[in-house]
Design brief:
It is a single chain. The chain is 47% helix and 13% strand. The radius of gyration is 21 Å and the shape is globular. The longest helix is centred in the N-terminal third of the chain and has 19 residues. It is an alpha/beta fold. The two termini are 32 Å apart. The protein binds uridine-diphosphate-N-acetylglucosamine. Uridine-diphosphate-N-acetylglucosamine (UD1) binds next to α1, α2, α5 and α12.
Length: 392
């Protein structure tokens, strides 16, 4: 058992969030750090990668995330601009706050940008959700994952396949710990507060009948550049979704990138149907309610593959690969890519009752953040070099 008081010489853990999928991962971590004995001091830094009310503010409220201590207000930009701007604005914080380490989650541009700054300033980097690999380097997230893991000092994984990936890349085993999935911590903590799908539609000014019918409903999200940035890919995807909606009504939560591209390519007409409810990006509790009640989920999201597995809801992933293979091997996920035939077949199988039931992966039990808190406190308290000698 460690002392009840955090050593005065050991600075706070700077916890970084930037984009929507970071928020549900960080919320349980901050709570677990607070509940740890001794409480682990933190400083929550938001890079501002996501900033809209729909992409940001609502999730903070739903997830009971504290207001960030600092917001770097980086906003949108090309990958280079966004990454560089996060780096430029994040660097001075290390001198000002003298953290014991910096904790980053997931695989967004903010994750890599902050990790890279720390590596050059000799501040230890902790990566939560390490070791996931799609082996598709055309995905910006894959580059972020690979590089962050190379420079991280402590790596926490969600599934055991990550350990083999890291070993292959030469990451020393003693830096890696299997702790489970913090995203599922959030899901389990919030499940009973999920908003009823009919209420979500009513509040959006849409007819709730779509989600209370006997045939059930499907949920759609799309935002990967590889699916939505080119008309040649987006148009056929939308037309197969339109077809699917004739079989099962769909609730489609539109990411700002996707909404903008649909308008830019003149594809709005194709989605105009009584059987497709178009919604803005949803709050966490709304999305959780929609997912939990769905017959099928069609998505290119990383997080939704895990959330549907935890909920036991069949998911068709509109990608050729996944960095989360456990959702396919043990969970409810099936990769269908963007091939209309495969999508149709997948939906038909699920509607016929042949969807995957899956099982809950090891350590997706709501206690991953507690495991991280326990391990990180132990690790920090036994680091030979204390803060003053860490900074050049
Ligand atoms: C980012 C992550 C992706 C994650 C996704 C979740 C990277 C490389 N990508 O992609 O891994 O799955 O978040 O949403 O980090 N926009 C707004 N409001 C916002 C944020 C963005 O309108 O609050 C629009 C802007 O036009 C922006 C575009 O969305 O240019 C893309 O935003 P960006 O943060 O660059 O990437 P995402 O596609 O959201």
């Amino acid at each position: 058992m460690v002392d009840e008081v955090w050593p005065a010489g050991l600075g706070p853990v700077i916890c970084v969030v930037g984009a929507r999928p970071n928020f549900m991962k960080m919320a349980p971590i901050l709570r677990a750090f607070d509940a740890h004995h001794p409480a682990i001091p933190t400083l929550l830094v938001h890079t501002g990668q996501h900033y809209d009310k729909d992409m940001n503010d609502r999730l903070f409220v739903d997830l009971r995330l504290p207001h960030p201590d600092l917001n770097l207000e980086v906003g949108s930009g090309t990958h280079a601009v966004q990454t560089a701007e996060v780096m430029r604005r994040f660097e001075p914080l290390l001198d000002t706050y003298r953290p014991s380490c910096v904790l980053v989650v997931g695989d967004v541009n903010s994750t890599l940008a902050c990790a890279l700054v720390c590596a050059k300033k000799n501040v230890p980097v902790v990566h939560v959700e390490a070791g996931l690999r799609s082996y598709d380097r055309a995905m910006p997230e894959e580059i972020n994952r690979l590089l962050t893991d190379q420079i991280a000092d402590r790596l926490y994984t969600t599934e055991r396949s990550a350990h083999a990936n890291l070993a292959r890349e030469g990451v020393a085993e003693e830096r890696v710990r299997f702790v489970g999935n913090v995203m599922i911590d959030s899901l389990l903590a919030n499940r009973e507060h999920a908003r009823a799908p009919a209420t979500t539609l009513r509040l959006a000014g849409l007819d709730p009948a779509l989600v209370v019918g006997a045939s059930g409903y499907g949920v759609v999200t799309l935002h990967r550049p590889s699916n939505v940035d080119r008309i040649e890919t987006l148009a056929p995807l939308l037309s197969v979704l339109r077809e699917v909606s004739e079989r099962v009504p769909l609730v489609f939560a539109l990411h700002p990138r996707t909404r903008a591209n649909i308008e830019r390519f003149g594809l709005s007409e194709g989605l105009a149907s009584r059987r497709i409810a178009l919604l803005p990006p949803q709050g966490y509790l709304e999305m959780l309610g929609l997912l939990a009640g769905a017959k099928v989920v069609l998505s290119d999201s990383g997080g939704l593959q895990e959330e549907t597995t935890a909920l036991g809801v069949p998911c068709l992933t509109l990608r050729e690969n996944t960095e989360r293979p456990i959702t396919v091997e043990q969970g409810t996920n099936t990769l269908v890519g963007s091939d209309p035939q495969a999508i149709r077949r997948g939906v038909e199988a699920i509607l016929a009752g042949a969807g995957k039931n899956g099982r809950i992966p090891e350590y997706w039990d709501g206690r991953a953040a507690q495991r991280i808190a326990a391990d990180l406190a132990r690790w920090l308290l036994t680091q030979p070099s204390q803060h003053t000698s860490l900074h050049g």
